[in-house]
Design a protein that fits this description.
Length: about 230
């Protein structure tokens, strides 16, 4: 039963989160290769996307000890949830994926991220817009594309690029698939069989509709994730 973040085509047969994970992975795979030097993975968890950063010299995972996935972390450094334990202008880049929704004091943390980033350094950030509560009780917020842009700009960053992964139809289908996933047993063989019968058809149907709708009827008011690339102002 594969539910990982690195998505290949064949994971359609095992990953109930294929649609949402594929969308974010495709964007990150393209953007991560543009970053070099030192990178801090803020809220790194088990560093699921580290392999995408092929041009970096140093990749440091930072996390907080108490969170919703405490047993799955590969952090190099832990912090207290307020102060990032690195000097000013330390990192060339910062990567932060699916973390902002778990940070209750984000208004305090973004200035800290700015502080440890070199002038002109970049941050590559993702955060969900449409997804059920998770890692409870450490799930505090959802951000619109406008909200996250405003929050970053008022804390000393300039937006370079901004994406919305997924679209309205895909989100509706992924939520329905997630509902089915929650209902079926998670024993490996039973899950695999039921995945082929109940989940795979929904994923394939959505992928076909994606091809038919692309550029025509796609609506982006409802989407899966924000992905945003910002640069620290000098």
């Amino acid at each position: 039963m594969y539910q990982g973040f690195i998505i290949k085509w064949y994971h359609v047969f095992t990953n109930a989160f294929f649609l949402i994970r594929r969308g974010i992975y495709t964007i990150l795979a393209n953007e991560a290769k543009n970053l070099s030097g030192s990178v801090m993975d803020f809220g790194c968890g088990n560093k699921p996307y580290e392999a995408l950063f092929v041009h970096v010299d140093k990749y440091i995972g930072l996390d907080i000890e108490e969170s919703g996935n405490s047993g799955l972390k590969k952090a190099d450094v832990y912090y207290d949830g307020k102060n990032i334990p690195f000097s000013d202008n330390y990192f060339d880049n910062i990567f932060c994926s699916e973390v902002f929704e778990h940070v209750f004091n984000l208004e305090e943390i973004i200035p800290e991220m700015n502080r440890v980033l070199k002038p002109g350094g970049k941050m590559l950030i993702t955060c969900p817009f449409t997804w059920p509560e998770h890692e409870v009780p450490y799930d505090y917020a959802r951000y619109t594309s406008y909200g996250i842009k405003h929050l970053l700009e008022k804390n000393g960053f300039t937006v370079e690029r901004q994406y919305k992964s997924g679209h309205m139809f895909e989100v509706i289908m992924q939520q329905f698939i997630f509902y089915i996933f929650c209902l079926i047993p998670k024993q490996k063989l039973v899950y695999y069989i039921l995945h082929q019968l109940l989940i795979l058809p929904g994923i394939v149907f959505t992928l076909i509709i994606n091809k038919l709708l692309f550029g025509k009827l796609i609506r982006k008011e409802l989407y899966h994730n924000n992905v945003i690339i910002v640069t620290k102002n000098n």
